[in-house]
Amino acid sequence: MSDIRITNCHIHTFTAQHVPENFPFPGAKYIRNNPGVILVLAWAARSLGQEQLSEQLQRLYQFQQQGARESQQEILNDVVKHYPGDTRFVILPMPMQGIGFGSVPVSLQAQHDELARMRDAANPPGSVLPFATVDPRDPRSVRECLRALVDLKFKGLKIYPRLGFAPDHPELMQKIYPLVDRLGLPVMTHCSRGGVQGNDVCDYTGDGFTRPAAYLPVLRDFPRLRLCLAHFGGQVDWAAYVNASETRGGENWMEQIRDMISSGRYPNLWADISYTLFQFDDFAPILRLLLSGTGDPSKRLRRRVLFGSDFYMTRQEKLSERAVSIRLRDALGEVLFEQIAQINPEVWLDERDEDKTLWTGQG
Ligand SMILES: [Zn+2]
After folding, report:
1. Per-residue confidence in pLDDT tens, the chain, 363 aa
2. Ligand 1 center to 85 CA (angstroms)
3. Strands 128-130 and 7-11
């Protein structure tokens, strides 16, 4: 077995304490305080012959229990077990204070501070790579993000436009991106139709903030910013691709991201496969196809896809972290897996030099 040092570019460790009381619906707090209700429902569904629903409820319970951990460190301990001992983890916080579902018990500042402590105590040293996050609509959040980047020396920026802001929001364009650019740090952003959405954000608006084309102004003004579109467009668009069916708005984000990256016009545009590849049987063959091929467009794509999982969101899925990463490694083979799980993350994090000839002369 070759020794590949994996970097998982996309995990979460935030707990129920970092989530608004009424998220995702007003009764949610009751269920968080009485998680056994989900198990009772699962039992009821099973006795009614609703096996599939029962299974889904049990996974929901699993997910709920994961978020109910006391600390971010405990959640990290749970994911670390699934990977080889030298694996590194990019940890992405969430700014959910201003999304219209009530107050969040623990502040963004405290969430960042805890990540800094986890980094400092990491075993092995260097295995925890915290990113800073921001809701650009809230000036306090902007200040806190700048603090995490400058004072806490976080390794990158995470944004989540679906919460209710455009990726070219003025505060991002004028304050946050210029600093991230100057520090030479990478950016991770949520790019799928699923996930968290602000209370006043309808699907149409959410898609508008999230679609790959929403990043064009950012790519234009900050061409050196290493921007990763998480989830490679997401499961809905991958499924639409498989079935040759329509998506909301008539655009397929997976195909768009693929084309943007392979065109060579955006040398610093990336995609990660987190969550999306947990639908392993359907999507692994497509990923292998996307990463194969001998022309320059295929070669560019091969160099711009990152391994990530989206733990612990994936506790809602059937397969475990270890099951997916081993299946992926097996399906892609050692060479391709090393490319997306070790080499590409190191380039994205600016730890490894790269031959840029694939992108020269592309304007
Ligand atoms: Zn995520």
Report:
1. 568 999 999 999 988 888 888 877 777 777 777 778 778 887 887 888 888 887 777 777 777 777 777 899 999 999 999 999 999 999 999 999 988 888 888 999 999 999 999 999 999 999 999 999 999 999 999 999 999 999 999 999 999 999 999 999 999 999 999 999 999 999 999 999 988 899 999 999 999 999 999 999 999 999 999 999 999 999 999 999 999 999 999 999 999 999 999 999 999 999 999 988 888 899 999 999 999 999 999 999 999 999 999 998 887 788 889 999 999 999 999 999 999 999 999 999 999 999 999 998 654
2. 22
3. unpaired
Question: Is position 90 within any domain?
Answer: yes
Per the structure, how many domains does the chain have?
2
CA of 226 to the centre of ligand 1 (A): 18
Residue 127 sits in the same domain as residue 220: yes
Which of 268, 264, 260 is CA-nearest to residue 295? 264
Residues with CB under 5 A from ligand 1 (ion): 310
**C-alpha 44 – ligand 1 centre gap (Å):** 31
Task: Kindly state whether residues 211 and 242 are assigned to the same domain.
Answer: yes
320 occurs within a structural domain: yes
Ligand 1 centroid from CA 158, angstroms: 10
Compute, in angstroms, the gap from residue 49 CA to the centroid of ligand 1.
33
Structure tokens at 63: 């997910």
10 C-alpha to ligand 1 centroid (Å): 6
Whether residues 161 and 279 share a domain: the answer is yes
- The boundaries of the domain holding residue 289 are 71-352
* CA 312 to each of CA 187, 247, 274, 321, 362: distance values in angstroms, whole numbers, following the listed order: 20, 26, 11, 9, 39
